[in-house]
Amino acid sequence: MAGFGEDTDRPAEAARFRRPPTGTRMWLVEQELGSATLADGTPVRFAVAGRGPVAIHLPGWVSHLELGWAVPAARQFYEGLATGRTLVRYDRPGCGMSGRTSRTDVVDLEMEVIRAVATAVGVDRFDLVGASFGAPLAVRWAARHPQSVAHLVLYGGWVDGGAVAPPGIREHVLGLVDQHWGLASDVLTEIFAPDADAGFRAMFSRYQRESAPAGWAHVLLAACYDIDVSEDLGRIVAPTSVIHREDDRAVPLAEGERLAAGIDRATLTVLPGRTHIPFAGDSHSVLNAMRGGLGLPALLPQAPPRLTSRQTQVAALVARGWSNRQISEELVISERTAESHVERIRDRLGFRSRAQVAAWYVATSSVD
């Protein structure tokens, strides 16, 4: 395999992880999990979905591959990116399904993770998509390995983390994450998705807590505030698209404008809205702006799958943590029938676990 510094043609797709369409599920694509290993032995889990040239998606500050795939808005968004691309997403060490680490230089760690994931998938040249904290990290990689990046797409990113929020607010939020991770996840959700409904807010707060423990969340958030890629911008040679919402509450538009101004021939797309999470709010506009940056055509909106009323009842009980026996007693059905309902739900939604069903239910249900 050629090194990352060489300008080689990229493979058509990550063939090792190709899956034929089943035709039985309502989702457009499925994801398949893989694993890479860092030099110190830390396992990094990644997910592959779709077909076509490889696009590696760098996560925001925390992530969980399986629980994120269970969130309808997130899954539909990633499926859109995976239409025409082999989309590769990963959990960085300390998050989601990946192994824990004692390393605290998050930026250097991330560079090793990107290299390990690309090697595991079998590509030397790929598209790079960075959202939120993933955007400055993508800039750092593209500057240090310019010939490895075919297209660079940056959403909701920044040049200098010190400009994201005043020092007092940064210290307050970091302290809150340390002292009360539950409350902090609620506060951050309000900042990241101020216009989301109650179900989405409840889901995303829980998602953040289940993606990383408080101590590691603090380390990652501090790295968000500390990173500065101002000296990297001029070294980027890949065609670059910068996308930002006009009134983003988490990251000021001025930082997106700095990204675009500092990268040669970069384009800037400013979309209405104040939501930071790309798959919340008018996510379809963000999706098509990203697809444009990848050289892909726009997509029409697609409706997510729905369950029958009985399946929705069962999903609600799964979300409470009930066993098949408890569900059968509550609904006055046999335990085997309850098990069949759960299996049909998982098959219809393309899920692997009851935890994903629970996450899906919370995200799609109104919460008082």
TrEMBL record:
Matches recorded under InterPro entries: AB_hydrolase (IPR050471), AB_hydrolase_1 (IPR000073), AB_hydrolase_fold (IPR029058), Sig_transdc_resp-reg_C-effctor (IPR016032), Tscrpt_reg_LuxR_C (IPR000792), WH-like_DNA-bd_sf (IPR036388)
Bilayer-spanning residue ranges: none
Name of one Pfam family that matches: GerE
GO molecular function: catalytic activity; DNA binding
Gene Ontology annotations of biological process type: regulation of DNA-templated transcription
Entries under SUPFAM superfamilies matching the protein: alpha/beta-Hydrolases, C-terminal effector domain of the bipartite response regulators
Identification of the protein by name: LuxR family transcriptional regulator
Domain HTH luxR-type per the UniProt entry, residue ranges: 300-365
